[in-house]
Amino acid sequence: MLVMSITFSFVAVALLVYFYVKVRTSFSPDAYAKTMQQEVIKMIRDIRYEADIAVQMLEKKIGECNQVVRTIDRKLTLLNEEILKEHTARTLFRASGARSQETQEEVCARPEHRSAPSRAGSSAAKPAPTKRGTIEVYNEKIIRDNGLRAESPLLKDAIIALSEKGLAPEFIAEKTGKPLGEVQLLINLSR
Questions:
Q1: Does residue 105 register a pLDDT over 60?
Q2: The predicted structure's pLDDT at residue 94
Q3: How far is the CA of 26 from the CAs of 12, 20, 38, 41, 141, in angstroms?
Q4: DSSP 128-155
Q5: Cβ(150)–Cβ(142) below 8 Å
Q6: CA 159 to CA 8: how far, in whole Å?
Q7: Secondary structure of the chain: what % helix, strand, coil (to 5)?
């Protein structure tokens, strides 16, 4: 029994020394400094990792924004070209309308084209302009079986009405017998 009590005493002393050293090292100023240093190093690693992820996401978003800016720039360039084309087309259309009106006035002023009994019926079939200075480009009658609106007296109005219904310019050109470019020009000028 003496051996047993001596053994327990040595074990108790060993445990006491172990816990004393552990408590002393755990609560020493050096232990606090080491623990704080490890925590700071861990936080720095976490911050670097998060910063790298944020920088990668930011670079990705900047790339997407640059792509959108390039696309918008291309579209604006095309839009400016289309506006210039439309302005040129309007100018040419107005100039050709003024020339055709002058030509009509010159033809009507000739003595052989003045009112003759045989031509009185044909001139009455053409609709007269309601406003002074109105230019009539199309004065053909609209055929009902072409799918055009019968109440519209002018082919120009019918083309515009068909485009407003959502029909393709190719289909309208086919049905009216007019060139595709002319139909597209009328549709664009009516907008």
A1: yes
A2: 84
A3: 21, 10, 14, 20, 105
A4: PPSSTTPPP---PPPPGGGT--TT--SH
A5: yes
A6: 112
A7: 80, 0, 20
